[in-house]
Specification:
The chain is an all-alpha fold. Helix content is 75%, strand content 0%. It is built from 14 helices and no strands. It holds the Pfam family BPD_transp_2.
């Protein structure tokens, strides 16, 4: 048999029409499954919520406002995950920021802008500590950030003696509770600004390219001249600063600083980031996906609350939607490629 005969087009297997359609369907599910799930949830809650309350403009703004703090923290940790690392200290950093910014104003008498700036720098310093331990000392990221986070908890208790800090200036609480532009809550504007900045940083700057290269293949990036240790440290610093921003806004929203107020944002942020990784891209972490993940979780929480679902089921939903969406996207990609 000649070479031409062995490579004859008649012997090349072709994908049957049904298999081709199935592959396309699976690819669509792998990229847009979470968006489809979000649309389905919106339709269900729009029908089930009494009096059409779900689609009321005030409720939609409430969903966006409730998503703001989680989105800011999640966007910061997205950069760490893009760099190929992990950060378990972000919730504790947010709590420290809340007590620090309120204490600097209430106890030290510092002006609001100065207190906020120092608090963000403190969050960045926590991120720097994480980055140095992971990138320079070679400590496993989970162990390093968990240990640093535990120390941060100790600092929060040491600074406050476990007592909430109150008596804050009205101008400070107005930051999170106000509606400065077009009647839209300030939290939505601030979330939008942070997310746009981080999207541009990650996708349109040399630092963002280095962070992506580091996470894609650290060894290859090093051979290409990328300072992968600096890229990882930068990602941790940004995550710490974002956690501090969120903690500051949380204390403004609550009107007080409490030592554990931001701890719960760790799970919410990670759920949103991993849920977002199953959206639009093949399992890659990205800012737009993170925002979509945050919205899916908060749409579910809001809708379940409106139809009178017990509180415990809302937490079941949070974990269930994460597992289901990621598993669906993973299986769809696997079958499509096979």
């Amino acid at each position: 048999m000649t070479l031409a005969e062995s490579t004859s087009p008649t012997e090349v297997p072709e994908l049957a029409p049904d298999g081709h359609r199935r592959r396309i369907a699976l690819l669509v599910v792998s990229k847009y499954g979470t968006l489809i799930a979000m649309v389905i949830m919106i339709i269900i809650f729009s029908i089930a919520a009494p009096g059409g309350s779900f689609l009321q403009p005030q409720n939609l703004l409430a969903i966006l406002s409730q998503s703001a703090l989680t989105a800011i923290i999640a966007a910061g940790v997205t950069l760490v995950l893009v760099a190929g690392e992990f950060d378990l200290s972000i919730g504790y950093t947010a709590s420290l920021a809340g007590v620090l910014v309120t204490g600097l104003m209430s106890h030290q008498g510092l002006p609001i802008p100065v207190a906020i700036l120092l608090t963000i720098l403190a969050g960045a310093a926590v991120g720097m500590a994480n980055g140095l331990l992971v990138a320079k000392a070679g400590v496993n990221a989970v162990i390093a950030t968990l240990g640093v986070g535990t120390m941060v908890v100790g600092l929060s208790f040491g600074y406050t003696a476990g007592q909430p800090i109150v008596s804050l200036p009205a101008d400070f609480t107005a930051i999170a509770l106000g509606r400065a532009v077009l009647g839209v809550p300030n939290l939505i504007w601030l979330m939008s600004i942070v997310l746009v900045i981080l999207w541009v940083l990650l996708n349109r700057t040399p630092l963002g390219i280095r962070i992506q290269a580091t996470g894609a293949n650290s060894h290859a990036a090093t051979l290409a001249g990328v300072r992968t240790d600096r890229a990882k440290i930068s990602a941790f610093v940004i995550a710490g600063a974002c956690a501090a921003i969120a903690g500051t806004l949380l204390s403004s929203q609550l009107g007080s600083g409490m030592v554990s107020s931001g701890d719960g944002y760790l799970l919410d942020a990670l759920a949103a980031v991993f849920l977002g990784s199953a959206t639009l891209r093949d399992g890659k972490f990205h800012i737009v996906g993170t925002l979509i993940g945050v919205l899916i979780v908060n749409i579910g929480f809001n809708g379940l609350g409106l139809i009178g679902t017990p509180t415990f089921f809302q937490f079941v939903f949070k974990g269930g939607i994460l597992v289901f969406a990621v598993a669906l996207a993973t299986l769809a990609r696997r079958y499509a490629r096979s």
